[in-house]
Amino acid sequence: MSMDERPLSPHLQVYRFQWTMAYSIFHRITGVALGVGTLYFAWWLLALASGPEAFATVQSFSGSWLGRLMLFGWTWALFYHLGAGVRHLFWDAGMGFELDTAEKSGHAVVGFSILATLALWVVAYSVL
Predict the structure, then answer these.
(1) In 3-state terms, what secondary structure has residue 58?
(2) How much is the pTM?
(3) Quick one: average pLDDT of 52-64?
(4) Which has more confidence, 17 or 114?
(5) Domains in the chain, please, with CATH?
(6) Which of 17, 20, 63, 70 is surrounded by the most beta carbons within 10 Å?
(7) 81 near 27, Cβ under 8 Å?
(8) 95 to each of 29, 80, 98, how far by Cα in Å?
């Protein structure tokens, strides 16, 4: 086979969309989001240790619509990443590799993350 006849490597134009592919991408994205959220948490802790003025600044940002949106997204990322991590633990044990099971477990992770995020925020707002 000459160099001209070699097949090209497959890429996104060749693959057809599958939910398991999207869930894998979400797992990576939520890992990055958790890293960014950890920086926000470190900012909050430093402000707490720095004094009332610095803490008031962080609390003011946290109470804004952007701050709450970021906290809500961080909460969802936390629950999604947790659910996907448990899913990976089952895979590490050799269970759930069938395409049908992998797709259903991915749907379950999304459902869990949405329900857990909403439940946490409802409880937090009802306590406040």
Answers:
(1) helix
(2) 0.84
(3) 96
(4) 114
(5) 29-127 (1.20.1300.10)
(6) 70
(7) yes
(8) 24, 20, 8
Q: Please state, in angstroms and rounded to a whole number, the distance separating the CA atoms of residues 126 and 77.
A: 22
- For 71-125, what is each residue's pLDDT tens digit? 999 999 999 999 999 999 999 999 999 989 999 999 999 999 999 999 999 999 9
Between these two residues, 2 and 14, which has the higher pLDDT value?
14
At 6, the amino acid letter reads R
Instruction: Give me 71's structure tokens.
Output: 């906290």
The Cα 2–Cα 19 span in angstroms is 37
Vertex 123 angle, CA 120 and 126, to 5°:
150
Of the CA atoms within 13 Å of residue 84, those in its CB half-sphere come to 21
DSSP state of 8: P
Give the length of the chain: 128
Radius of gyration of the chain (CA): 20
- From residue 44, give the alpha-carbon distance in Å to each of 30, 58, 77, 79, 117: 20, 6, 19, 21, 21
